[in-house]
Amino acid sequence: MLKVASTRAIRHSFFWVFLFLLYSLVEVLLTHQPFFYTVSNNAVRLVILGMAVYYNVYRLIPQYLVDKRFLPYVGFLVLTVLIVTPLESLMIYLKSSGHPDIRAEVVANLNWYFIPNFFVLATSTVVKITVDWYTNIKERQELVTETMQSELRFLKSQINPHFLFNTLNSLYALTLKKSDLAPDIVLKLSEMMRYMLYECNEKWVPLSKEVNYIANYLELERIRQGKRVDIRYEVVGLVSDQKISPLMFIPFIENCFKHGLGSHISNGYVKILLNVKGNDIDLQIENSKGEVMPRQNHPRSGGIGLVNVRRRLDLLYPNRYQLTVDDAPSSYTVKLKLRLEE
Q1: CA angle, 6 as apex, 4 and 9 as ends, to 5°?
Q2: What residues have CB less than 8 Å from 122, skipping those under 6 apart?
Q3: CA spacing 20 to 30 A to 116: which of 47, 68, 76, 299?
Q4: 213, 192 in Cβ contact below 8 A?
Q5: Does residue 167 contact residue 188 with C-beta atoms inside 8 Å?
Q6: Alpha-carbon span 235 to 273, nearest angstrom
Q7: Helix crossing, 70-95 with 100-108: angle to 10°?
C-alpha cells in the first residue's frame, strides 16, 4: 500500500512540475514579463487548476465517466472550466495591484485561458483512464498467475502422496520376500523422496533430474515385478539443463504398473522411449495388458495421476503439447510431444 501511494505521489509530482515549467516557459517567451512575476502567477494558477483536476479525477470520472454517463460528464467538465478560469484570472488580477498594464492584459486575454485549462483537464482524464486500465490489466494478470500457482500447488499435493504410497508398497513387497535388494531400494527410495520433497517445490527442475527420477522409479519396479515384466527405458538425445515442471512424466509411467500390469499377467512389458531434441520432448510409453482387465472403480484414462497431469499440461504448456492415448485390446500407448521453455 505504501509503495502504491509513493508511486502515485511521484507520478503526480512529475505531472505538476512538468506543467509548471511548461506554463512558465510559454509565458516568458510570449509576454517577456519578469521571471519571478511569471513564476508567482503560475503558482497561483496551478493551485486553482490543481483543485479542478483532482475534482475531475476523484469526483467527476468515478461518478459519471465510469458509469458511461458521457454527456453529463462533459457538461460538468465544461462547467468546471468556466468556473476555474475566471477565478484564476481574478486571483492574478488582484495580485497585480499597482500594475494597471498587467491587469488590462489579464482582462484582455481572459477568453484565451479557457483553452489551456480545458486541455489540462482533458489530459488528466486521459491519464486517469490509462492508469486505471493498466492497473486493472496488471491486477487481473496477477490474479490469474496466483490462481494458476495455487492450482498447481494443489495438483502437486495430490501427486506426491500418490507416488509415496506406491513406492512404499514396492518396498513392503520386498521386505515380505526378505530380499537382499531391500537396502539398495531404500537408498533409491530415499533419493526419490528427497527429489519430491525438496526439489519438486520449484516450478522448474533440470530435465536431467527428472530423467534420473524415472530411472530410479523403474529400477524399483524391476525388482518388485521380477522376471514376469520386461521393462525397457531408453533416452535418446542430449539431456542437460533443459527446464521442465517436476513429476510431469511419472503419472503416465506409474499407470503402466497400476492399471496395465497386475497379478493377472505373467509376461508383460513396459517400453519407454524418451527422445530429446533441444527443447522438444517426444515421450512414448507402451505397456501390455491382460486379456481380461481387472474391474476398476474408475476408467483407465482417469485416476488422480492422469487427470492431474493433463491439467498441469494445460496450465504450464498451453498450445505447446500434444497428448494422444491408444487403448488397444492387448496394449496401452501414450504419446506426448512437449516443447519446453527456452
Answers
A1: 110
A2: 77
A3: 68
A4: yes
A5: no
A6: 6
A7: 170
| Each residue's pLDDT tens digit, 135-190 | 888 777 766 666 666 665 665 655 556 556 766 776 777 777 777 777 777 888 78
Q: What is the dihedral of CA 292, 298, 302, 306, to 10 degrees?
A: -90
Alpha-carbon dihedral 111, 115, 121, 124, rounded to 10 degrees: -160
What's the grid cell of residue 216?
Answer: 530410479
CA terminus-to-terminus distance, the chain: 35
Phi, psi of 236 (to 5 degrees): -115, 135
CB-CB neighbours of 190 under 10 Å:
11
pTM, rounded to two decimals: 0.55
The residues, ordered by sequence, that sit 6+ positions from 163 with a Cβ below 8 Å of its Cβ are: 192, 196, 247, 250, 254
Q: What is the pLDDT of residue 296?
A: 47
Q: Which residue in 4, 128, 114, 131 sits closest to 61, CA to CA?
A: 128
Contact 336, 283 (CB under 8 A): yes
Instruction: Say which amino acid occupies 191.
Output: E
Upper half-sphere CA count for residue 240 (Cβ side, 13 Å): 5
d(CA 33, CA 53): 27
| Helix axes 35-55 and 2-31, enclosed angle (nearest 10) | 140
Instruction: Identify how many contiguous H helices and E strands the chain contains and give both numbers.
Output: 9, 7
Question: Taking the alpha carbons of 286, 290, 292, 294 in that order, is the dihedral positive or negative?
Answer: negative
Residues in contact with 20: Cβ distance below 8 Å, sequence separation at least 6, in sequence order: 42, 43, 46
Note the pLDDT tens digit of each residue in 21-59. Answer: 776 776 666 666 666 666 777 777 778 888 888 888 888
